[in-house]
Fold:
Amino acid sequence: MVIYADTLFLLNALVDYLLLLAAARLAGEPLRRLRFGLGAVLGGLYAVVIFLPRLAFLAHPLCRAAAGVLMLLTAYGGSRRLLRQGIIFLALTCAFGGGVVAIGLLGGQGLALGDRGVFYSPLDLKIVLLSAAVCYGVLTLAFQRMGRHTALSGELVSARLTLGERTAELTALVDTGNTLSDPATGRPVMVAEGDSVKELLPQDCRPGPEDLRDPAGAVARLSAGSCKGRFHLLPYRAVGVDRGLLLALRVDRLELDGADQGPLLVALSPTPVSDGGGYRALIGGVPRR
Structure:
């Protein structure tokens, strides 16, 4: 069988991109499409170079594993859930490969899993690209429906924060898995994106990105301004983080869908809390006074 390098590269890069995207969606991680694209390009290039006579040794299992790790680091590097995403990606790859083999056994002629573990198709490149585009659309639609949060289901609520005479409004997701609580009162803590509450604060004590990444230094700096006593350090634990700190702001009042919940502690996240931007805050449940 004659193998064309351009078809081999594009097909494997597209499959890798879809698998990287699906793994990120299943893990609930932000969709860094550019990084996924770079990781997929590495996967496509690897699929080509192992067929070159002088580079055939790269098909060795250890080299294959190293290439996979490099692709994962390119796509997900820096994530606190890197191991989880890698496991999900591996599971999806195995499931996809098994499906391809099953189709081949049934007599399908479209997509094949080659003897070196890469995908190849004897079809015209245009047909391959069209098929990949259709698969991408179906995959995106399926995950959007699976992961959609709606106000009708009660998962999304309208939140209004008040600090003095200033207010800020945002949409929050009711996340029962968020068990973060205020050490002083025991009440649930809202986790909000750092820049979503800037309207609450005067210019001289608005935390910037560097403050959110260095909560301890931020408390010392911001407590000397007009917001003295408003900022606190909130310890937390998460997957991959045993002892972390978040910069937190105590607001005078929180309203959820118009219902007054009283004063509350709001933890400021240095990263987005939603991959699609449908909400900008998380709260474990309706706080009770």
Remarks:
- Confidence is low (pLDDT under 50) at residues 107-113, 149-153.
- Residues 22 and 66 are 21 Å apart (CA to CA).
- The chain has two domains: 5-147, 156-283.
- The chain has seven helices and eleven strands.
